[in-house]
Specification:
Layout: E1 2-8, E2 13-20, E3 23-27, H1 34-42, E4 46-51, H2 63-70, E5 73-76, E6 87-88, E7 94-97, E8 100-106, E9 115-120, E10 126-132, H3 153-168, E11 176-179, E12 197-198, H4 199-205, H5 214-222, H6 232-241, H7 246-253, E13 256-257, H8 259-269, E14 272-275, H9 279-284, E15 291-292, H10 299-306, E16 314-317, H11 323-332, E17 338-342, H12 345-351, E18 361-362, H13 364-370, E19 377-380, H14 384-389, E20 391-392, E21 396-397, H15 403-406, E22 416-419, H16 424-435, E23 441-444, H17 447-451, E24 458-459
Parallel strand pairs: 3-4, 4-5, 5-6, 10-11, 13-17, 14-15, 14-16, 16-17, 18-23, 19-21, 19-22, 22-23
Antiparallel strand pairs: 1-2, 2-3, 7-8, 8-9, 9-10, 11-12, 20-24
Helix pairs in contact: 3-5, 7-11
Amino acid sequence: MKVEQIYTGCLAQGAYYIESKGEAVIIDPLREVAPYIAKAEKENAKIKYVFETHFHADFVSGHIDLAKKTGATIVYGPTAETAFAAHIAKDGEEFKVGDITIRVLHTPGHTLESSCYLLIDKNGKYHSLFSGDTLFIGDVGRPDLAVKSDLTKEDLAGLLYDSLRSKVMTLPDDIIIYPAHGAGSACGKNMSKETWDTLGHQKETNYALRNISKEEFIKEVLDGIAPPPQYFPKNAMLNKKGYESIDEVLSQGARELSPEEFEMTADAEEAIVLDTRKPTEFAKGFIPNSINIGLDGQFAAWVGALITDLKQPILLVTDLGREEEAVTRLARVGYDNTIGHLKGGFEAWKNDGKDVEIIDSITAEEFASRFQKNETVVLDVRKESEYRAEHVEDAYNKPLDYINEWMSSVDPKTHYYIHCAGGYRSMITASILKARGFNNFTEVAGGFGAIAKTSVPKTDFVCQSKLQSR
């Protein structure tokens, strides 16, 4: 028997490869399926099943392409309804894979069809539980994504409480918990950076598994949940209804465009120019009106949060050799309409004599030398929780997540200093402001991490959140 966790850090997502006696299953696969197929071929195994723990909201699963390419059967838990061929399992139903058994445990709460998969070894021992978004390490799945007119988030939280106590916590303490996500995912609020643990240790450390009443559980699990990113329900629908083959998406995104073709295509298709280079490189020079979301960060999550139309045409500017990576990571969250990339990258654009813009960016030390209390207007684009912990005195908290809501309050006549934690989000903010015609700002490179080391006055008190009229 072989069990392998395939963890993708940028999505904080865990897929699983399980093999026994030449038969294999994949649990919660990512959109690109070639690595799973290659792994099975290397092991001389045939992929028999694709198990889905639920309809994922934070990424588009590879279940459909994987089933088409391998002949595997897609399996969902009870109550799931799909627009494609799938086996809808019964609670307690078992599947043989080589000499091991996988049992379905229906655990509604995160969503109604949510299910865990219990791996039983050839000796009948309960080995591990693939818990999806029902149970994380340090947390449980948010119960607000499957709300309906007759089903509230409180109702779902109550179902989750029952599922955990009747289906999961009754299992042996030494069983290994393999969740679908870890720290950084928006599917929970308190996930550990660890990606697996024993059930016994989780009973000792996970707040949701304490000996508390259902009412207490509901209150705790709902407390502090941020609104879900706008792309979540759209990804869930793709996972239910189906999507375009990843091969076609990659082929379209591989289209190379000269600077002239790139410019003409951007105008003709009303495409977003997405520059995926590092923030520091983007600041030095970029194509006018392009948006910077760097690949070396939570790229897919920020694309999903900020680009509201999954069908939006996208043109890419990347570091050389990273074009396919960018297209793949866009497709993971349902952005399939990448229509090409700039051949030769930004250097080709610059060498062709095309217009170039820059971002006014300074170091934290330079910011400290310019800072004057009651005169310097600072926009802190971190999350509210980060801001509450500590921030520049009198700074305004304007989280990047809500830029489309607060941008109208930006005064073009006021000069702003913009920062985040390390420079990634502030450059996204700067690029969006620049594309929308705002130029009276300076980005602080290194973010609050660098500012905290300077003499700039700081506080942990909460300031007013509305921009001061000037």
